[in-house]
Design brief:
heterodimer; A: 110 residues; 6-stranded mixed beta sheet; 11 strands; 59% strand; B: 112 residues; mainly beta; globular
Chain lengths: 110, 112
């Protein structure tokens, strides 16, 4: 089965609204990372967050190891936030290989 | 300046031909990776290298061969290209096997 499940698959927001993206893991977590994939395809690292809560501007990531999940909160969304958000898992069973979820496709409309 | 350089950005190839995708990283990382992203599929792990040695290979086909001539290079040679190989190929690097990744901007390959 899939090791990394992301929800929702897609999301449309009005500019200014908040969003909560979820990432659930079927295996024990060693570390995880959130990425933003631009519409053109390039990947930008948002957070490396093996545990706890991290903040960066309007973004907050919270990883709860015991519950095998991580969330990404986007506050006061902007049209430039549109794109795909990916989470990736590095499991306890092996290093040197992040496994990616299918992503959440976000569209923010003005 | 980009920290991971992938060349070329776009590549069109004829079925049956051979191509090499270039990846160089200037982050001083000791681990490098290749991932593939086909249309409407998640990013798929292909290979990982650490200190120029193969750590993991999840690619079933031997047509895909990584080549590491220098510690900051990990090229990907693809032989006998097929239309199903059409995808964007991403290179990434990290410091050690348990740390954050940095990705290159990808090479978009179309096999006709």
């Amino acid at each position: 089965g899939q090791q990394v499940q992301q929800s929702p698959a897609s999301l449309v927001l009005q500019e200014g609204e908040n969003a909560e993206l979820q990432c659930n893991f079927s295996t024990s977590l060693n570390s995880m990372q959130w990425f933003y994939q631009r519409p053109g395809g390039s990947l930008v690292s948002l957070f490396y967050n093996p545990s706890g809560t991290k903040h960066s501007g309007r973004l907050t990531s919270t990883t709860v190891i015991k519950e095998r999940r991580s969330s990404l909160h986007i506050s006061s969304s902007q049209t430039t936030d549109s794109g795909t958000y990916l989470c990736a898992l590095l499991s306890n069973t092996g290093n040197y290989k992040y496994v990616f979820g299918a992503g959440t496709r976000l569209k923010v409309i003005a | 300046d980009p920290k991971i350089i992938q060349k070329p950005k776009y590549l069109v190839a004829v079925t049956g031909s051979e191509k090499i995708l270039i990846c160089e990283q200037y982050l001083g990382h000791n681990a490098m990776y290749w991932y593939r992203q086909s249309a409407k599929k998640p990013l798929e792990f292909m290979f990982s290298y650490s200190y120029q040695k193969l750590m993991d290979n999840q690619t079933a086909s031997s047509r895909f061969q990584p080549q590491s001539s220098k510690k900051n290079h990990l090229d990907l040679q693809i032989t006998a290209l097929k239309p199903d190989d059409s995808a964007t190929y991403f290179c990434a690097s990290s410091q050690g096997g348990n740390s954050d990744y940095t990705f290159g901007s990808g090479t978009r390959l179309l096999v006709i």
